[in-house]
Amino acid sequence: MSTGLVAGRTALVTGAAQGIGLAIARCLHHNGAKVALVDLDGDRVREAAADLGTGVLPLACDVTDEHAVDTTIRQVIEEFGALDIQVNNAGITRDASLRKMTAADFDAVVNVHLKGTWLGVRAASAVMREAGRGSIVNISSLSGKSGNPGQTNYSAAKAGIVGLTKSAAKELAHKGVRVNAVQPGLIRTAMTEAMPPEIFAEREADIPMKRAGEPAEVAGAALFLASNLSSYMTGAVLEVGGGRFM
């Protein structure tokens, strides 16, 4: 782990027990970073961390809990001595039409995605401002650009993450802290593979590249934004969607 695009740095990735979050954590670790894997599911995140090897810290955390987020940041700094990269990826879905969606399901999705990202940005940036450097990567979605039927909660939250990213980037740029976002499209994860096969195939057919993406392809974009290769980028939103909405 002595070489790589983020060698010697410390990263924290939320929603890291599976899917895109785990792929990002694995990619950062492979490229030399010490990585804290953070997830609500403590057992699963410990299993995921064990597979990665040394230089990994598994932590259970509810990203909607302000105290828990602040405590998690402190634990990472106590273990690794710094926080250089923060990836806010944790998310859930509670899909339903406008007519059938409950207020509780709307609140749950917005709280995890948008409030959780805001709490993560706030806590990480407080540390990074003092250090005079750092990269924050927020995971949005192409659903936040186009909107999806049955996902008014999810699409609204993911659109909000873009606004949050740009606002935070403007506040933090003069402190040497960069804030960028990634908007994945249809990515092959447990969540999307639970979709009815005909719906999945229909969405895949709308993609110019004619296939769903893989979590590792999202991780590559996150790695780029976390590394010095993107040193003059902040407030940017990278689409990883096979050209779906170009």
Automatic annotation (TrEMBL):
Residues 9-185 form the Ketoreductase domain. Pfam families: adh_short_C2 (PF13561). One of its GO terms (molecular function) is 3-oxoacyl-[acyl-carrier-protein] reductase (NADPH) activity. It is an enzyme of class 1 (oxidoreductase). Keywords: Oxidoreductase. Its EC number is 1.1.1.100. It comes from the Bacteria. One of its GO terms (biological process) is fatty acid elongation. The keyword Chaperone does not apply. The keyword rRNA processing does not apply. PROSITE patterns: ADH_SHORT. Belongs to the short-chain dehydrogenases/reductases (SDR) family. This is 3-oxoacyl-ACP reductase FabG. It comes from Saccharopolyspora terrae.
